[in-house]
Amino acid sequence: MILLLGATGLLGQNLLKLFLEQGRRVKCLVREGSSIDASIVRAAAPGQLTIVNGSILDKAFVLKQMWGCTKVVNCAGTTDMSLKSIGDYRPVNTDLPLTLANLAYETGVHCFVDVSSANTVDPGTAGSPANEDTPFGGPFTASLYARSKRESEKALMDFAASHSRLRIVIILPGFMIGPFDSKPSSGRLLLAAWRKPLMAVPRGGKSFIDVRDVAAAIAAAIDNTLAQGRYLTTGKALTLKEFYSLQAKTCKYWQACFTLPRWLCLALGRIGDKLEARGRSNMFVSRNVRQLLVEEWYDDSRARKDLGMPHSPLEQSIKDFFEYYAK
C-alpha cells in the first residue's frame, strides 16, 4: 500500500488518480475540511482507497497510519508566497519530510518520494540549462519557499547517506498545470489572462509541465528500484508572454500582451516591501518580484531517461485545466 500526503492538491489528486488507474492500493491522509475530487474517489475499486482525516504534523498519527505501507509519497507543501517568515514554511516544507523519512525507516517502508521544487537549483539559461548538480542560486536564494525546500533536500540527502535501506527520491517539479486544480493553485496564472484583450507581464518565465507528466515520473520512481536522489521534472521553458500567447491561441481568443519594464516591476516590489513592513501581507514583495524577471531553463533529461517521464503538449494541459475549472 502507498501512503499519500497532499492528496487534495493539484499534483496529489492527479497522482492519486493515476495510482488508482494502475490498480494500486492507496491510503491518503487528509486534514479536516479538505477533500479529494469526488470523481476520483468514486473511480476507486472496493478496498482500493482509504482516506483518513488528521493532521500530517501529528507524528503519532502519521506513524500509526504508516504501519503496513511499503511506499510513502509526500506532495504536501506550504506555497503561500505572501508569508513573511521562513518559519512559516518550515513545519511542512522542511521538518515534515525529514520526520517522514525517519518514520518510514522505522516502519520498514521501502521507498520514500518527496516533492520539492525546481527552484532549489539556479534557473540556468537557454544556452546552459540547469540540471540536478547545479547549485542553489539566482533570485530564488531570497525566496522563503525555495529556501525551506532546499533545507529539506539537504536534510533528506544526509539522511539517505546513512540509511541506505530506505530508498529516497526527491522530485523537483517545474510549474505544473492541468486538471484537478480545485483551489486553484497554479491555475490562477492561467485565469489571470483568461480572455483579457490586454495583458502586461514581467519579462521572466517559467518551466511549464503537465502535472500528469510529473505524476507519471513519481509512479515510475516508486517502481524503479535504481531510482534515487533528485530528479528535475520541468517541461518546457517559456516566458510569461509566450505562455499567454499559447493560451490565447489554444483557447481561441485574441489578446495583446506587453512586457513590463524591469524598473517598474522592481518599483512595485519596493511598494510591496513597505506594505509588508507595515504588517500587510502581500505576494508582490521584492523577493518574489525578482523571480518573475528571470527565465527558467532546466534540463530534465535524467527524469526522462531514468523514469520515462512523458512530454505532453501544453496545449492539452491548458485545455484540460479550463475544462475542469468550468465544471
CATH architecture of one domain: 3-Layer(aba) Sandwich
Mean pLDDT reading? 96
Determine the number of helices (DSSP H or I, runs of at least 4 residues): 12
> What's the gyration radius in Å?
19 Å
CATH superfamily of one domain: NAD(P)-binding Rossmann-like Domain
List low-confidence stretches. none
Helix/strand-derived category reads alpha/beta
Distance between the termini: 31 Å
Total number of beta strands:
12
Sheet-strand content, in percent, reads 15-25%
What pattern of helices and strands is seen along the backbone? EHEHEHEHEHEEHEEHEEHEHHHH
- In quaternary terms, these chains amount to single chain
CATH C-level class of one domain is: Alpha Beta
What characterizes the major β-sheet?
7 strands, parallel
Write the layout of secondary structure elements.
Elements: E1 2-5, H1 10-21, E2 26-30, H2 38-43, E3 49-53, H3 59-66, E4 71-74, H4 90-107, E5 111-115, H5 144-162, E6 167-173, E7 175-177, H6 187-193, E8 198-201, E9 205-210, H7 211-223, E10 229-233, E11 236-239, H8 240-251, E12 256-259, H9 262-277, H10 286-289, H11 301-306, H12 314-325
Parallel strand pairs: 1-2, 1-4, 2-3, 4-5, 5-6, 6-10, 7-9, 8-12
Antiparallel strand pairs: 9-11
Helix pairs in contact: 1-7, 3-4, 4-5, 8-12
